[in-house]
User: Fold UPF0342 protein JOD45_003148 from Scopulibacillus daqui.
Amino acid sequence: MANLHDIAYDMEQAIRNSDEYQTLTKAYKEVNEDDIAKKMFDNFRQLQLTLQKKQMTGQQITEEEAQKAQQQVQLIQQHEVISNLMAAEQKMSMLISDLNKIITKPLEDIYGKSGDAS
Amino acid sequence: MANLHDIAYDMEQAIRNSDEYQTLTKAYKEVNEDDIAKKMFDNFRQLQLTLQKKQMTGQQITEEEAQKAQQQVQLIQQHEVISNLMAAEQKMSMLISDLNKIITKPLEDIYGKSGDAS
Ligand SMILES: [Ca+2]
Ligand SMILES: [Ca+2]
Assistant:
C-alpha cells in the first residue's frame, strides 16, 4: 500500500488531468478575458456571498435582495461564457463530492453520517 | 495515470490502514465501552455543538454556558480514555487536513485560497 501522502499527490495530479478540471480552467479563463462577463459574474458572486452570510447568521433576506438575485441569475444565464462556467463549476463540484464520499467513508464508519461523535 | 475514483478508493484504504485511524478506532471503542466515560463525552459533545450553533447564528453565549463548558473540559481531561480519544481525534483531523491541502491545490490555483471565485 502506497503512502497516504503519495496517494494524495496522485489524486491532485489526476484532478488536474480530469476533463472536469480542464473544462473548468478553460471556462474560467474565458470569463476572465471578457470584461463585461467578468464584471457580471463578480457582482453575482458577491451578492451570493452576501446572502449566504446573512442566512448563516440568521439575518432576514429582504424581498428586494431576493428579487435582485433572481434578476442577476436570469441576466447571467443569457451570457454564454458565464453559463458555461457555472455548468463547469457544477460538474467539478459533483466530482469532488463523489471523491469526498469515498474518502470520508472510514470516518463515517466511526461517527455515522453526520461526522460528529454524538 | 490511474482513474480518479480508483485513486480515491486507494486513499480510503490507506486511511483505514493508517496509524491515526487505527488509534482513533481503538480510542473510540474504549470510550464507548466505558459507560461513565461515554456519558461524559456525549454530554461534552452535545454542549460543544450547542455553543457552535449559537456562534454560527450570531447568538450570545452566556457566561453560565461558557463556565459550564470550561468545567466539562477540565472534568474530561482527567478521564484517561476520553483524553486519549480527544488526542486521537486531533491527530486524525491533522492528517485529513494535510491531505485536503494537497487535494484542493488545483482548485486553489483557479480560485485562490478562499475557494470562491470573487
Ligand atoms: Ca475523464
Ligand atoms: Ca503511519
Q: What stands out?
A: Residues 4-111 of chain A form a domain with the YheA-like fold fold (CATH 1.20.1500.10). The interface with chain B takes residues 1-5, 7-18, 21, 24-25, 28, 41-42, 45-46, 49, 56-59, 89, 92, 95-96, 98-99, 102-103, 105-107, 110, 116-118 of chain A (CB under 8 Å).
